[in-house]
Amino acid sequence: MFLNQKLWIFTVFLAVLSGVSAINVHISKENYEVLKGDSATLTCTFQSTITPQLAIISWSAVGTQPDDQEVLIITHYYPMKRTDVKPAYAGRFLLNVDVLRGKAMLRLSSVTSADDKIYECRVLIPGDDEGKSAATTRLVVNEPVSKPVCGIQGTVRSGENINLTCHSEKGSPPPSYRWERWHESVGSKRRFMAHTTTQNGGVLSLYDISNDTSGLYYCMSWNKIRTSTCEVHLSVLLDDSPGSDVFGAVGGAVAGVAGAAAGAVAGVAGAAARAAAGAAAGAAGAASGAAAGVLVSIASVADKIILGDGNNN
User: Fold this and answer.
1) Bridge partner list, 41
2) 155 with 137, same domain?
3) CB 21 within 8 A of CB 133
4) What CATH number is attached to the domain comprising 156?
5) What residue ranges carry the coiled-coil annotation (predicted)?
6) pTM confidence score
């Protein structure tokens, strides 16, 4: 029994010794959330039982999709105090390292949606390679929803089925949508009943529309950062509405009167143009005749002078 106790104590001692000598890398937060365009600092801490004479600390990142490849971002070499940054991340990613205090903080500036990834901090210390040498965290980049754009799909005519569309181009987390209708009678908005409409994402489907469907419709697009809206004014056309024939006859009569008036104006203008043309032609003829008469008179006088001179000789 005494021998068994000694063996048990020796086993516990080895377990404690091996646990103490193992490196432990830790990131306190499972997720860091930041707004697009802001800065973020990912803090990595590590503990080692030996005083490092040499250490290599690196940060890498991998996308959230299964096929995404891990990419090395930055590496720090101790005690040379040399830091290598991949060109794609230079200028935006900085590493603040204190090996003796066990800290390696990665700072990202002007965060973009592409920075929304899983980041790994890894610490390599020769002679202390047991235990947990790496830890991961997720950087979640949030972006407010952009102002949505509303539209109509289909023919807005009585008895038809149409869709009202609503879409925000940007937003992270992805936006949610809700359609509402403004009711002037009660002066408020009301959500739709399932038997007359169907909402799917940003699409509101309206079935067998009628004059009662006409009105002002609002779409709300939101995520946890911001809410934005757009609107559509729906005016349903009625093919067989009462009085439509009367309105058509009146419209035809108005169009006929307008056509007759236009014809009369054109006739008057034509007559005036013809009269002006005739007057111009007459004036031209008179001028031409007068000129011819003058020429004839001159010729006659010349002949008399010539004949007279012949008689005198």
Assistant:
1) 107
2) no
3) no
4) 2.60.40.10
5) none
6) 0.62
Q: What distance lies between CA 227 and its chain's CA centroid? A: 15
Does residue 74 contact residue 84 with C-beta atoms inside 8 Å? Answer: yes
Same domain, 47 and 122: yes
41 lies in the same domain as 153: no
d(CA 120, CA 63): 12
Same domain? 208 vs 119: no
CA distance 177 to 199: 9
Q: What tokens appear for 189 in the block?
A: 């908005």
**Three-state DSSP class for residue 167:** strand
Per-residue pLDDT tens listing for the chain (313 residues): 433 443 333 333 333 344 445 899 999 999 999 999 999 999 999 999 888 999 999 999 999 999 999 999 999 999 999 999 999 999 999 999 999 999 999 999 999 999 999 999 999 999 887 899 999 999 999 999 999 999 999 999 999 999 999 999 999 999 999 999 887 655 566 665 544 567 788 999 999 999 888 989 999 999 999 999 999 999 999 876 543 333 333 333 333 334 444 444 344 344 444 434 443 443 344 334 333 333 333 334 334 333 334 333 3
| CA-CA-CA-CA torsion sign (308, 309, 312, 313) | negative
For residues 168 and 45, give the distance between their C-alpha atoms in angstroms, rounded to a whole number.
Answer: 40
Who's near 194: CB < 8 A, 6+ residues apart? none
Residues 27/42, Cβ–Cβ less than 8 Å: yes
Q: Which domain holds residue 117?
A: 22-142
Distance of CA 191 to the CA centre of its chain: 27
Tokens of 207: 């079935």
Long-range contacts of 126-129 (CB under 8 A, 24+ apart): 126/53, 126/54, 127/50, 128/21, 128/22, 128/23, 128/48, 128/49, 128/50, 128/52, 129/23
Of 243, 237, 233, 244, residue with least CA distance to 159: 237
